[in-house]
Amino acid sequence: MRPLLAHLILTLRLNFRAHQALVYGYLVPIFFLLAFGSVFHSSVPPLLHEMGQLVTITILGGACFGMPTGMVSERERGIWRRYRLLPAATAGLVVSAMVARYLIVLLAVVMQFGLAWCLYRTPLPAHSFSFLVAFTAVCFAFLGMGLVIAMLAGAVPAVQALGQAIFLPMIMIGGVGVPLRILPPWAQIFAGFLPGRYAVEALDASYLPDGLGLAGSRFAIVALIVIGAAACLAGSRMFRWDSGQKLAPRAKAWIAFALAAWAVVGLVAIRTGHLNVPTANNWQAVTLAQINAIPFSDLPRDDSVVTPIAPGIDNLSPPSKTRVMDIRARLATWPLARDPDPVQRVRNLLSAASVFDILEDPDEGPIAYVILDDTRRQYPPADLERILTYIILHPGEGAVLTKVPALGGHDEVTEAASRERTVIYSEKLLKRLIGK
User: Fold this and answer.
1) How far apart are CA 102 and CA 364, in angstroms?
2) For residue 288, is pLDDT > 60?
3) Cα–Cα–Cα angle for 86, 92, 97, rounded to 5 degrees
4) To the nearest whole number, what is the mean pLDDT of the chain?
5) Cβ-count burial of 198 within 10 angstroms (0-12 exposed, 13-18 middle, 19+ buried)?
6) Looking at CB atoms within 10 Å, which of 314, 365, 395, 401 has the fewest?
7) Contact, 128 vs 138, CB < 8 A?
8) Are the beta carbons of 390 and 286 closer than 8 angstroms?
9) Which residues have CB under 8 Å from 303's CB, separation 6+?
10) Is 409 helix (H, G, I), strand (E, B) or coil?
11) CA distances from 19 to 24, 31, 70 (A)
């Protein structure tokens, strides 16, 4: 173990001496953080729902470019040929190189967390231990891919070409760079065959406050382990000590073996319904024309007795203000306000406001104000417009609440009345979002 530890330390020291390694390892993650921050700064809190994507991009960059570039460069200089003379197993040296890259990427991710908090006040992972497990599984899968790239590439420039062949598809249609929810259905199916989708899913489950941690990412983590194990086995069978050493035709068959793991994972995901591909009736399919076609006819005034919305809570009496602020605080931990299905989550919130309205609660207007404000903060405006339009166009779908004891609404109302008021609140919030 002492020689392998020495090799690990040597690899880390060489990495921090290489300018190119520092650019790929630390400047590129900062660039992506600032780029995502400029696009998703309007969400509350900023970047919370994009951190899984950012971390995946950082790991992917280190695996597709950082580690194979270092290994191929060392092989070209004859370093690995000298390693072959050591009384140590090949596997130990390769694992040492992968652990070094794991630590380098981990440092880059910690740096991203710190900058995200300083610049945007983005919270840290909600489930720290689960996030570390998910992070390790993602690194294992992607570093295995990096090992295959290092064995295929004959020179450093070839690493860039091979790395881009994996990096760009995952960024564009793999749910890593472009959020999976806005991809067309065919791309969402295709993303199920790429490890990037499962990486973001596993990291999100542990990063988000409403995520379920390891319990909500079992399939994704197993998929990543399978993909990583297949890639590591393929890379070990294709291992080259010298740049002059050619790959045997039989060794190249291991590339197909590594890719077959991707195909198996995708097919199992489809068979088990894990992909959850949206249909034509899903909220993502709502068009701008459908949003603009909502008539907003005969909506009750905000100061009427039906679906009232207060202009704020500052002018309330002290008892009412205390009660409304307590409801706002409860919303932050209310499980129904963090339902993983966006449409059901919004329907839960708006039907909660409807319950207080139907019960003619003395604080119904201010309560509706804080509930609609919480709803507005959970999604980007473009997404929320589609979700609200979907609820308006499909009033009979899903479940609505008829009582909300967790928020202080203990009496029960009828489902029909709750559905009707939920649609009205949806129209009122949508009307505000689109500026009408």
Assistant:
1) 53
2) yes
3) 100
4) 88
5) buried
6) 314
7) no
8) yes
9) 365
10) strand
11) 9, 16, 12
* Coil, strand or helix at 137: helix
Whether residue 311 has a cis bond before it, omega within 30° of 0: no
Output the 3-class SS for 252-317. CHHHHHHHHHHHHHHHHHHHCCCCCCCCCCCHHHCCHHHHHCCCCCCCCCCCCCCCCCCCCCCCCC
Query: What b/e string do you get for 34-45 counting C-beta neighbours within 10 Å, with b at 16 or more?
Result: eebbeebeebee
Q: What is the Cα–Cα distance from 339 to 345, expressed in whole angstroms?
A: 5
- What number of H helices and E strands is found in the chain? 19, 0
Is the CB of residue 410 less than 8 Å from the CB of residue 401? no
Structure tokens at 205: 């489950």
Between CA 371 and CA 369 the distance in angstroms is 6
Tokens linked to 163: 């790395």
Q: What's the rounded Cα separation, in Å, for the pair 319 and 327?
A: 13
Cα 118 off chain centre by: 21
Report domain extents, the chain. 2-277, 284-433
Q: Tokens for 151, please give them.
A: 């064995």
Phi, psi of 39 (to 5 degrees): -90, -40
Q: What is the dihedral of CA 173, 174, 176, 182, to 10 degrees?
A: 50
Check if the beta carbon of residue 370 is closer than 8 Å to that of residue 331. yes
Burial of 335 (0-12, 13-18, 19+ CB in 10 A): exposed
What pTM did the predictor assign?
A: 0.66
Quick check: 112 pLDDT over 90?
A: yes
Task: Please count the other Cβ atoms lying within 10 Å of the Cβ belonging to residue 1.
Answer: 6
Kindly report, residue by residue over 369-424, the tens digit of the pLDDT.
999 999 998 889 999 999 999 999 988 888 899 999 999 888 899 999 999 999 99
